[in-house]
Write a structure and sequence with these properties.
Layout lengths: L1 H14 L1 E4 L5 H8 L2 H5 L5 E2 L18 E4 L7 H21 L5 E9 L5 E4 L9 E8 L12 E5 L2 E5 L6 E5 L4 E4 L6 E9 L9
Helix pairs in contact: 1-4, 2-4
Bound molecules: 2-oxoglutaric acid (AKG) and fe (ii) ion.
């Protein structure tokens, strides 16, 4: 993993984003897909909103995904494998890039076919503790024609990334605008943010 973390650190420092294939192995992805939560799909998840706490709004015209937050103390083992890897990555990035990242928050995500998330930035106006956005995709056999790309808006143009199983995308939450394009298939992922604050402080 160290070499993966190393290239993520280099790319983050140089470009503000990084893409790492096989961040989760095929077996680790399959173990997550086998979880009851993902098997039941969108039905067991909540409609995702925009904004935070009291300002939270549901707006289908902006985002159409369904989510369920992972609670680390009760998360099933296959999810904990991923959370622990993120935790290791945080320690690595802190040392390599002299950051003081402290924690993370992650939800399981389902985009039903045809749904999307319009162009946005992940940092909230009233809360700038989200420093890095990290998304790990869980879609086996995903092809270009399925759509569902993550489109990043970069200084030199756009870059589209397919949500293929095991791939991690990580980018600066304060800088990189992005969107999720509609797909012809259900699109599954673990979506999270690395924070410069402990996550239990976030609900105070
Ligand atoms: O799933 C993705 O590729 C990006 C999701 C996203 O932008 C978000 O949840 O804020
Ligand atoms: Fe986002």
């Amino acid at each position: 993993m160290i070499t993966v973390f190393d290239s993520i650190a280099d790319d983050l420092a140089e470009h503000g984003y990084a893409i790492a294939d096989q961040f989760l192995s095929q077996q680790e992805v399959n173990n997550i897909l086998d979880l009851e939560e993902f098997k039941n799909g969108a039905e067991s998840f909540k409609k995702a909103g925009i904004g935070k706490n009291k300002g939270l709004q549901i707006n289908e015209a902006i985002r159409g995904d369904y989510i369920q937050w992972l609670d680390r103390s009760s998360a099933p083992r296959p999810a904990v494998v991923y959370l622990e890897r993120l935790s290791d990555m945080i320690h690595f990035l802190n040392q390599a890039l002299f950051l003081s990242l402290k924690d993370y928050e992650v939800h399981m995500t389902v985009y039903p076919p045809g749904s999307f998330y319009k162009r946005h930035l992940d940092q909230f106006k009233q809360d700038d503790h989200r420093k890095l956005s990290v998304i790990c995709y869980l879609n086996n056999h995903w092809q270009e024609e399925h759509g569902g790309q993550l489109r990043m808006y970069l200084p030199d143009g756009t870059r589209d990334i397919l949500p293929v199983a095991g791939r991690l995308v990580c980018f600066r939450s304060d800088q990189i605008e992005h969107e999720v394009l509609p797909a012809t298939r259900e699109r599954l992922s673990l979506t999270g943010w690395i924070l410069d604050q402990h996550s239990e402080l976030r609900h105070l």
